[in-house]
């Protein structure tokens, strides 16, 4: 495959100020007529080149005249037409078969609907067009379809006209006044019902909001609607950004390659991020709906009004928009818990990516397939970079800087460099060194050591940073990072206040005076920089912070570090004092000043994967055994506490209040420990919770707890769950996912069985992720020493690649982490990668991920 490089960017040869599209829709045979006004950009004589993917032109016209076969050509799928003048009108006609489109890119059919997905390069599967984000065009779209089958016809912008036609067909016209890149084009046709409400913007304009779903799903749309209104109000209040069209529509579809898509005025969503009710959605699902609705809405400014010049700038819109949605969700709920969750995701997904063969900078230098770069690095690390800038600037200067960015680049296709410059000018700061964060891959490690001098009553903090090499980047330069720090008096339990340390050198010393006794260091509070901090704080100091730190993230972190030390010690066969861990857990649960959601986060043992990340070589079996043993011990020694917490957090009726959500979270932690304790009634308590729950949070977590061990209750609960939800795809996904993620000795065999289950299908990405995505993230099961887990995932990748390469490629990274495992496992993993690579006709998507991973 061809490698695309950032440094090769050239402005487009031809611009397309306007495009008229006419769709005659039909699942088997859709006719697309496009009329483009094209203008030559600069003095050159290069032909017009319109990208195409699996398209054959039925007709090509220039300025109204049909061209003969010799007057155009097809090169690598693209339609190439030499044109004489500075401006022309080009018309093409193509035919599509949406029902045959299993890639879910371009125009496709999903559950009786016709819908589109264009980002990144799907528009070229719909019509011939210069498919790059720096071509901004005004769209006018006419849709025509069978009225009975497709009564609703939607596209971007505002609806203008509609009418009926003979033969039961009808049509509608949509005009989008805002010039946009083609990746934001969308259409939907189908039999949809609408949850319709209105929002009045800050300047007093009424916007008609519509959430379109299958009729039966209407009752499950109210949370998404509330989230949409809250996001609109939040963006006005926090960023001064107002919505700009008269309508804002969202459509939920069942078959979707990722979460959702921010098409201008017509967001299309994976239904799992729209539909929610107490019967089927967990609290995490509710939060997911709120976060993704907000994310896509916020793209209207960070992405649509200001878009990306090229795909190397993807984090310009994604990192910034993730940062915005994270802060929105924090404002809607708990800042402390949201930060903990976001850091957990960053560490689990981005730190792993950054330490493996697929590591890449936030602004990559090259790609084979851009779809492979919708990564945790672009999204989550990108968001962390914005967070650091916002921290360095403070709220007022950050707001001045984003105002400048939006004003300066409104209507443009911008770059990360444009963004940084706006931050510098609007925020009055020099980001010269900070820019390295965009160029350099890899997670920096910061060593912090504190020495106390009782004579001068001072402490010296030495910070040393280094970033390990990543593919193609052997040498790393020091980064500029803001580290929030505080020193605590170990007797009073109070700190002398927080300071922001700017680490810019490889090694830096900071001196603090007025400490008669050595203080306890709290550093990277709030996870102010996305780095790994290594301190050699004792278990006693960590326990102190776990009890006294006034930064909730730091407090959580101290708990995690305490537990990690105990677990890594166990794996290494060392005698580590675990009483500090047990005491810290007990004290945290009993602390009356802490809210339940925070307590639940803080007392949770780190995941097996996270423990593995702390070790030079991952031993999945030993890690599993160590975590299991510690969990059992905590369960046993505090058994009365878990019984008490489990009983007292039982709710009287369902509510989505923060307190109720927190209580459910804590209740589930208590259940996990209670069952882990080995108490004989563990499975019955879990089964009762499963059976009596009036909400999915408690039901699914009880099921997940039961799924870990052999018991009659396990089998009964799985059967009940299946029979109750077999007709609801999103909930049935949970049935697959819970089993694939279970810490059960037979998981690998069970996953094989489930892959043959009549309800399993490769055609639906949610189902694939529920089974194979969850399984590949289940460290103990996936890395079964037989290698069977690797084989199952590789089989899935090979089969899925023929249907849906994008989703297939997303399953590759877990196999690519072979360097972190013992020789036998590494050989088995590489063997599977090689087997995948030897398949004939492998997609560009999978080829890129596998070839980078196998070396
Ligand atoms: N921008 C889309 C992601 C498109 C992914 C294409 N492979 C959703 C989002 O980030 O909001
Ligand atoms: Zn996004």
Automatic annotation (TrEMBL):
Question: What Enzyme Commission number(s) appear in the record?
Answer: 3.4.11.2
Task: Enumerate the spans annotated as Peptidase M1 membrane alanine aminopeptidase domain.
Answer: 224-435
What are the protein's GO molecular function terms?
alanyl aminopeptidase activity
Q: Which InterPro entries match?
A: Aminopeptidase_N-like_N (IPR045357), Aminopeptidase_N-like_N_sf (IPR042097), PepN_Ig-like_sf (IPR038438), Peptidase_M1 (IPR001930), Peptidase_M1_dom (IPR014782), Peptidase_M1_pepN (IPR012779), Peptidase_M1_pepN_C (IPR024601), Peptidase_M1_pepN_C_sf (IPR037144)
List required co-factors.
Zn(2+)
Ranges of residues in domain Aminopeptidase N-like N-terminal:
89-184
Q: Per its UniProt entry, what is the enzyme's top EC class, as one word? A: hydrolase
Top-level taxonomic group: Bacteria
Every Peptidase M1 alanyl aminopeptidase Ig-like fold domain range: 442-535
Q: Does the keyword Membrane apply?
A: no
Pfam families annotated for this entry? DUF3458 (PF11940), DUF3458_C (PF17432), Peptidase_M1 (PF01433), Peptidase_M1_N (PF17900)
Which UniProt keywords are listed?
A: Aminopeptidase, Hydrolase, Metal-binding, Metalloprotease, Protease, Zinc
Q: What reaction(s) does this enzyme catalyze?
A: Release of an N-terminal amino acid, Xaa-|-Yaa- from a peptide, amide or arylamide. Xaa is preferably Ala, but may be most amino acids including Pro (slow action). When a terminal hydrophobic residue is followed by a prolyl residue, the two may be released as an intact Xaa-Pro dipeptide
The family annotation for this protein states: Belongs to the peptidase M1 family.
Protein name (database record): Aminopeptidase N
- Origin organism is Sphingobium agri
């Amino acid at each position: 495959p061809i490698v695309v490089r950032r440094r090769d960017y050239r402005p487009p040869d031809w611009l397309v100020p306007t495009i008229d599209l006419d769709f005659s829709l039909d699942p088997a045979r859709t006719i697309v007529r496009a009329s483009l006004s094209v203008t030559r950009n600069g003095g050159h004589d290069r032909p017009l080149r319109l990208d195409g993917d699996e398209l054959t032109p039925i007709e090509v016209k220039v300025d109204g005249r049909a061209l003969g076969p010799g007057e155009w050509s097809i090169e690598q799928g693209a339609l190439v037409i030499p044109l004489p003048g500075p401006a022309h009108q080009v018309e093409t006609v193509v035919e599509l078969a949406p029902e045959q489109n299993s890639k879910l890119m371009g125009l496709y059919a999903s559950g009786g609907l016709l819908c589109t997905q264009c980002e990144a390069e799907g528009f070229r599967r719909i019509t011939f067009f210069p498919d790059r984000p720096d071509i901004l065009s005004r769209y006018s779209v006419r849709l025509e379809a069978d009225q009975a089958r497709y009564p609703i016809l939607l596209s971007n912008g505002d609806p203008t006209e509609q009418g009926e036609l003979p033969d039961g067909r009808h049509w509608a016209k949509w005009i989008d006044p805002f010039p946009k890149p083609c990746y934001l084009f969308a259409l939907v046709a189908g039999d949809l019902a609408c949850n319709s409400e209105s929002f009045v913007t800050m300047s007093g304009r009424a916007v008609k909001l519509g959430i379109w779903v299958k009729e039966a799903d209407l009752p499950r749309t109210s949370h998404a609607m509330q989230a949409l209104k809250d996001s609109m109000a939040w963006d006005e209040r926090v960023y001064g950004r107002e919505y700009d069209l008269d309508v804002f529509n969202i459509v939920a579809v069942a078959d979707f390659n990722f979460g959702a898509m921010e098409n201008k005025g017509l967001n299309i969503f994976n239904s799992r991020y729209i539909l929610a009710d107490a019967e089927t959605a967990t609290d995490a699902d509710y939060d997911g709906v709120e976060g993704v609705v907000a994310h896509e809405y916020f793209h209207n400014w960070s992405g649509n009004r200001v878009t990306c010049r090229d795909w190397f700038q993807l984090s310009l819109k994604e990192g910034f928009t993730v940062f915005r949605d994270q802060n929105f969700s924090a404002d809607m709920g708990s800042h402390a818990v949201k930060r903990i969750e976001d850091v957990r995701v960053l560490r689990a997904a981005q730190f792993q990516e950054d330490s493996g063969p697929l590591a890449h900078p936030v602004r990559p230098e090259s790609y084979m397939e851009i779809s492979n770069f919708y990564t945790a690095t672009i999204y989550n690390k990108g968001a962390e970079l914005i967070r650091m800038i916002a921290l360095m600037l403070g709220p007022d200067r950050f707001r001045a800087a984003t105002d400048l960015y939006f004003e300066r680049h409104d209507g443009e296709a911008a770059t990360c460099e444009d963004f940084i410059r706006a931050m510098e000018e609007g925020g009055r700061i020099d980001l010269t060194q900070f820019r390295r964060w965009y160029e350099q891959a890899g997670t920096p490690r910061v060593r912090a050591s504190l020495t106390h001098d009782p004579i001068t009553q001072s402490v010296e903090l030495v910070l040393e940073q280094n970033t390990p090499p990543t593919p193609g980047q052997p040498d790393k330069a020091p980064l500029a990072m803001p580290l929030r720090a505080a020193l605590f008096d170990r007797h009073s339990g109070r700190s002398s206040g927080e300071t922001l340390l700017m680490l810019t050198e490889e090694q830096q010393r900071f001196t603090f005076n007025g400490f008669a006794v050595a203080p306890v260091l709290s550093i990277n509070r709030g996870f102010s920089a996305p780095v790994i901090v290594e301190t050699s704080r004792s278990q006693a100091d960590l326990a102190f912070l776990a009890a006294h730190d006034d930064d909730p993230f730091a407090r959580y972190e101290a708990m995690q570090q305490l537990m990690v030390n105990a677990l890594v010690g166990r794996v290494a066969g060392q005698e580590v004092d675990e009483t500090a861990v047990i005491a810290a857990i007990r004290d945290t649960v009993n602390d009356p000043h802490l809210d339940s959601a925070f307590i639940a986060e803080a007392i949770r043992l780190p995941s097996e994967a996270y423990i593995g990340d702390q070790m030079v070589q991952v031993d999945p079996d030993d890690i599993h055994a160590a975590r299991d043993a510690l969990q059992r011990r905590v369960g046993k020694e505090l058994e009365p506490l878990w019984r008490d917490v489990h009983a007292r957090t039982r709710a009287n009726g369902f509510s989505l209040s923060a307190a109720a959500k927190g209580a459910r979270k804590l209740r589930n932690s208590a259940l996990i420990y209670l069952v882990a304790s080995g108490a004989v009634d563990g499975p019955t308590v879990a089964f009762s919770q499963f059976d009596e729950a009036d909400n999915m949070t408690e039901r699914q977590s009880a099921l997940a707890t039961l799924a870990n061990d052999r018991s009659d209750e396990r089998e009964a609960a799985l059967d009940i769950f299946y029979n109750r939800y077999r007709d609801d795809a999103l909930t049935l996904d949970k049935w697959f996912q819970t089993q694939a993620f279970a810490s059960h000795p037979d998981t690998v065999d069970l996953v094989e069985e489930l892959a043959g289950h009549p309800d399993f299908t490769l055609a639906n990405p949610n189902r694939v992720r529920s089974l194979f995505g969850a399984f590949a993230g289940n460290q103990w099961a996936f890395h079964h020493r037989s290698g069977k887990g690797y084989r199952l995932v590789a089989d899935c990748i090979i089969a899925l690649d023929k249907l849906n390469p994008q989703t297939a490629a997303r399953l590759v990274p877990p196999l690519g982490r072979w360097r972190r495992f013992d020789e036998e496992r590494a050989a088995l993993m590489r063997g599977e990668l090689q087997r995948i690579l030897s398949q004939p006709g492998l997609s560009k998507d999978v080829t890129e991920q596998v070839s980078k991973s196998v070396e």
